Amino acid sequence: MDVTEQKATLNEVRLNEAFREAMRRFATTVSIISCSDEEGRLHGMSATAVASVCVEPPTLLICINNSTATRGALSRSGRSCVNILRVRSFHSELSQVFSGKMRGDDRFRLGNWDRAADGLPFLADAQANLFCHVDRTLDYQTHTLFLGRVYATRAEEQVDALLYQNGKYSIAYPVLDGREYSVTNVAT
């Protein structure tokens, strides 16, 4: 590798690190993506890369790393549930379990899991559940982007979504007069 290539590689590494640091400023809602495979085994993972695409038809964007078992199961089954986690529960601990602390079906022994009429696993005490059929996918670098057409929803009346910001679980508080802003980290 010549000097020019070394500098380009170093600049790319610095850009990647700076990008990661900038992305830690996003306060994002924490979800667990759940699905089952063709043998009925349960799969799931914690996710913050979930976004609304449009209301008509109701569609979500879900970004999943290609190295996860959930990505393969979702690709094959074509259905998932986005379970939006809540604060006033042990959902921050449950998110950690689905972030790799445990593997396989054992993760579903923790939490209040149920099955929808079509067999899809969902977290019954989640802030909200969005049941989706995969409409389209796009492979991009290390991830697959799933466009999920929402076919059913369930939501709690009180808004109590668990957030993730700067590497920590967080709580959002409403801005009272347009001047106050507060995000508090939740100890995990």
Description:
- With 188 residues, this protein is of the alpha+beta class.
- The chain has one domain: Pnp Oxidase, Chain A, CATH 2.30.110.10.
- The chain is built from three helices and 13 strands; from the N terminus they run αβββββαβαβββββββ.
- Strands 3-2-6-9-10-5-4 form a seven-stranded antiparallel β-sheet.
Brief digest:
The protein is of the alpha+beta class and 188 residues long.
What is this structure's SSE topology?
Blueprint: H1 3-23, E1 28-29, E2 31-36, E3 42-47, E4 50-54, E5 59-65, H2 69-77, E6 79-84, H3 91-101, E7 113-115, E8 121-123, E9 128-140, E10 143-155, E11 163-165, E12 168-172, E13 183-185
Antiparallel strand pairs: 1-11, 2-3, 2-6, 4-5, 5-10, 6-9, 7-8, 9-10, 11-12, 12-13
Question: Which keywords apply here?
Answer:
seven-stranded antiparallel beta sheet, globular, alpha+beta, Pnp Oxidase, Chain A, four-stranded antiparallel beta sheet, about 20% helix, about 190 residues
Number of strands: 13
Number of domains: 1
Q: What series of H and E elements makes up the topology?
A: HEEEEEHEHEEEEEEE
Total number of helices: 3
CATH level-four homologous superfamily name: Electron Transport, Fmn-binding Protein, Chain A
Class from secondary-structure proportions: alpha+beta
